[in-house]
Structures are given as C-alpha cells and as structure tokens.
Design brief:
This protein is α+β, with helices and mostly antiparallel strands. The chain is 44% helix and 18% strand. α4 packs antiparallel against α5.
Amino acid sequence: MSSSSTTRRLSQAAAALSAILRANHIGHAFHGGLLTVLLGSPKQSEELFCIVEGSGSTHPFRRVRQALAGNETLTATLIGWSNRLYVTYHEPIPAIQLEVLPAGEEGPRRLDASRVMLMHSVPFLNVTEFLRAKMKAWISRGSQDDAEHVIFILTRFWGQVDINRIQEDDMDRFVAQFPAATPAWKSIKRRYGL
C-alpha cells in the first residue's frame, strides 16, 4: 500500500471519528505521527491517537463508547486489563485501529482553542502541545520515531512553539542527544529572552 494511500485512510478514519464525537459534543483532538505527515514530513507514519475529554464524572472512554453504540463503521473495544480503548474504522480494507487516550495522559487536560488546531477540518493538537506530548513520550519510551517527530516539529515550526508549555530540562537533555534540534531550541530560547 502506498504511503499517500495510508495517509488518506488514516485521515478518513480521523474525520469519521471526529464527526461522531463532535455530534455528541465530546471534546477531542488527534495526536501522533500522522500530524507530521500532514505538516509536510517526508517520513511516513501510521501513528494516530485520539485524545478525549471526560465530562464531570463520566470517563472519556464511556463517552466514546456511548457515542459509537450501534455504529457499524466505527466500533469501540475496551481492553479492561490494560485500561485501553481502541476504535476500529471498518470502512477501508484493511480496517484501521487507533487508540483513544484520556485528556491529560499524553496531551493537555483541556482541549480548547489555545491547544488545538484544525487540519482539513479535523482537530489535532497544536504544534506546542504536540511537541509537549511527543517529548513526554520520548522521555518515557526513548523511541526513535518520537525523536524524529520532535526534530521535525522543532526545525520546521520553532516559531510557533510556546516555551512556557515545554519542560526545559527535558528539551535540554533531548538536544544533547540529538544535535540537529539544537539550533531550533536555541532560537526558541532566544525568542523568549532565555
């Protein structure tokens, strides 16, 4: 399968899930390597997560499962022993599966206009929140893919990064390991007078 076909299929899955979540007034944003592809990265990625807000005492997973009840195109599967929720988009073959994350786990707790941007009418974490989430993932997993996503965002979109949302110690550690990110990180710090 071609990389553009994979990107198109992932984008369709995100758009379909987003439409249902919006119709049910469920705050959400997508996150993952797909965003770097949509922003122009030549390195393809099939990574896609959906971050969902809870509502009062209702857990985000319950909100998603209720919204998808009876839907044949999108189905939700809760893996109880690992406390994970996966949504499968059955329209394309093969089907696409993505993980749903509670807001605050790998992204911000609140998904408002200051933390989200629209890509083809689908909400994604904005550049700063994506960078913050990817740094958190890189710190915990040490994944080369996460590092490449951080480098891409830093070097291409450093002017959009809000340093107040980034852990400076973690980023200093990152640039020590990945010197390609150093000029962009220095530019961000200089922009904030640091």
